[in-house]
Amino acid sequence: MKKSVVFLVVFLTAASLVLYAGGGSEKAKAAPKPATVLKISNGINEQHPTYLACKEFEKIVESKLPGKYDVQVYANAQLGDDVRATEAVRMGTLEMVATSASPLTGLVPEFNVFDLPFIISSEKAADAIYDGPIGAKLAALLEPKGIKLLAYYENGFRQLTNSVREVKSPADLKGMKIRTMQNPIHLAAWRALGANPTPMPFSEVFTAMQQKTIDGQENPIPTIYLSKFYEVQKYVTLTGHVYGPHILLINKKMFDSFPAEDQKIILEAAQASAKFQRETNRKMNRDFIAELKKAGMVVTELTPEQVKAFQEAVKPVYDEWVPKIGKELVAEFQAAVAAAK
Ligand code: TK8
Predict the structure, then answer these.
(1) Which pLDDT tens digit goes with each residue over 171-186?
(2) Rounded distance, CA 294 to CA 274, Å?
(3) Least buried of 29, 119, 195, 310, by fewest C-beta within 10 Å?
C-alpha cells in the first residue's frame, strides 16, 4: 500500500513536469512575450530634429528587432521637462529621454564644460567632442548614476532673442529679463553680461514671453523657428554663445538587462539616428534664418569685435567654473576644439 502511494506520487510529479514543459512551449507559441516598451521623452515639438531622430530610432529598432521592442516617442514635455524626465529615467520610472545636457549637471558636474561660453566654435569641433574621447569620458560618468548615454544628438549654437530692443553689445542687455536653462553657468554668464536671468523649464518659455514675465530667451535657430518664438519675440542676435548637446539617455539597469545582440542593435540605431539628427539640425540651422526674417524678426549678426565684447564680459565665469569642472578636462576639451578647426 505504502509503496504504491510513493509510486503514484513520483509518477504524477514526473507526468506534470513533462506536461508543464510541453504546455510552456505551446503557450509561448500561442502568446509571444509582449514587446518591451521604450518611452522616450522630448521637451520640444514633433517638428524638431531631436524628435524626428527619436522616430528614426524607433523605426530602426522596431524593424531590426521585430516584436521585441515598442518604442514610443512623446513630444512637448508630456512626460516631464528635461529635469523631471531625466530624473525619472534615473529612477527607472521612465525608460528614455532626449534632453539638453545643461539641466543634468547637478548629477555630473563635468557636463558643465559644454556650458562654458564660446568653448565650441564650429560644428566640426562639436563632432570632435561628441565622437571623440571626451564624449566617451562624459558618457561614462553617467553610468554610476544609473544612466546610459546612447548617442549625442545636438541642439547647436544658442542665439539670443528678445522683445525689447536690438542687442549688439552687453550694454544693450541691461536689466533685460532672460530665461535660461536650469544651469548655474548659464545664470552666471547672463548675470556677467548685465542681464537679469531667470531659470525655467523649456515648456514654460513661450507663455512667459507672451505674458511678458520675461523679455527674452536663448536657443538655437531651429528651436526658435519651430517653436514659433517669432510670434512673441522681435529681435534675434546671433551670439552663438553656447553649442549645446541633446543627449539620448536610457535607464542603465534596463539596458543592461537586454540580450547582448539587442544592445548592439539599439546602440547602432542610436548612432544612426544621431547622424540623421545632426544633419537635419544643421540644415535647419542654415535655412531658418531666412524664415525668421520672413516672419518679421530683426536678425542681428555680430562683427568679430562685437563678439569679443561678449567674450570679455563672461571671462569671470571661466575663473569661477574651470576649477569646479576640472582644469584638465577643460584644457583637453579646448585642445580638441582647436585641433578640429
Ligand atoms: C527641450 C530643451 C531645449 C533647451 C532649453 O527639452 O531648455 O532651452 O534648449 O532644447 O532641452
Answers:
(1) 999 999 999 999 999 9
(2) 30
(3) 29
Closest residue by Cα to atom 6, ligand 1, is 43
Ligand 1, from 76, 97, 100, 152: best to mutate by most atoms within 8 Å of Cβ?
100
Residue 207 alpha carbon to ligand 1 centre in Å: 15
> Residue 326 is which amino acid?
G
Eight-state DSSP code of residue 211: T
- The CATH code of the domain at 36-155+244-285 is 3.40.190.170
pLDDT, tens only, 89-112: 999 999 999 999 999 999 999 999
Could you tell me which residues come within 8 angstroms of residue 318 by beta carbon, excluding any fewer than 6 positions away?
116
Q: Identity (one letter) of the amino acid at 99?
A: T
Q: How far apart are CA 100 and CA 186, in angstroms?
A: 13
For the CA of 179, the nearest atom of ligand 1: 8
Q: Which residues line ligand 1 (CB under 6 A)?
A: 43-44, 82, 99-100, 155, 181, 202, 219, 223, 244
161 touches 236 (CB < 8 A): yes
Alpha carbon of 90 to those of 23, 69, 131, 304, 340: distances in Å? 39, 20, 24, 42, 33
Question: Max CA-CA distance within the chain?
Answer: 104
Q: Regarding the domain with residue range 157-242+288-340, which homologous superfamily does it belong to in the CATH classification?
A: Bacterial extracellular solute-binding protein, family 7 (3.40.190.170)
Q: What cell does 116 get?
A: 562654458
Q: What is the pTM of this model?
A: 0.91
Q: What is the CA radius of gyration of the chain?
A: 25
Non-local (6+) Cβ contacts of 59 within 8 A are none
> Coil, strand, or helix at residue 168?
coil
Q: Inform me whether the pLDDT recorded for 141 exceeds 70.
A: yes
Alpha-helical regions (H) of the chain: 2-30, 49-64, 82-91, 123-131, 133-142, 184-192, 205-210, 221-226, 252-257, 260-294, 304-313, 315-325, 327-340
Q: Could you tell me which residues are beta bridge partners of residue 250?
A: 96, 148
> What's phi and psi for 298, nearest 5 deg?
-90, 115
